[in-house]
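step=encode ok
step=design start
structure_in=
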């Protein structure tokens, strides 16, 4: 939520293209995801459905959303990208035409809840399944990138995925 608030304060600088780095993002609350996507999609946009036992819940961007970016979007993902971060990348790809760079995401997007146990411990159990705007499951599948760095076994310090995104974004703005 703090990052979302920070982003809103910087919104005047986001009218052009933007790179969103979700490579080490393990997701978070769906309500924060809805708000985040509202910044790029606008208010009242359906971003998928959550299936729970006998309920189907449509996930929507908040009606109070203020779209702050209409430029090119490149999303960086990796093997550690999971949960709501995977949903964000997938939805921006489908509904905004965002380019996805990096490695395939983890495919861990089940909605879960934490339950308190009698001994004071907790157990986390899946309670729902997310489907994207095209009706596809991401659980066990993940998000596939449009561009993937070469796996040459290099341990170079350079971040070739970020460099590629920066170059492509700058070229698109010319």
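sequence_out=
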């Amino acid at each position: 939520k703090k990052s979302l608030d920070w982003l809103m304060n910087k919104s005047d600088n986001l009218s052009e293209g933007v790179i969103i780095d979700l490579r080490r993002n393990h997701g978070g609350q769906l309500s924060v995801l809805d708000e985040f996507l509202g910044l790029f999609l606008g208010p009242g946009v359906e971003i998928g459905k959550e299936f729970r036992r006998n309920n189907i819940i449509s996930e929507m961007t908040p009606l109070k959303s203020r779209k702050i970016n209409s430029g090119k979007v490149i999303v960086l993902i990796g093997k550690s990208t999971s949960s709501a971060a995977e949903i964000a990348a997938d939805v921006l790809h489908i509904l905004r035409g965002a380019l996805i760079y990096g490695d395939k995401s983890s495919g861990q997007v089940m909605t879960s809840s934490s339950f308190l146990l009698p001994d004071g411990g907790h157990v986390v159990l899946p309670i729902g399944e997310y489907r994207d705007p095209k009706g596809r499951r991401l659980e066990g599948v993940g998000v596939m990138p449009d561009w993937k760095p070469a796996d040459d076994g290099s341990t170079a310090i350079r971040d070739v995925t970020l460099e590629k995104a920066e170059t492509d974004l700058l070229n698109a703005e010319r």
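step=design ok
step=annotate ok -> The CA atoms of residues 23 and 77 lie 4 Å apart.
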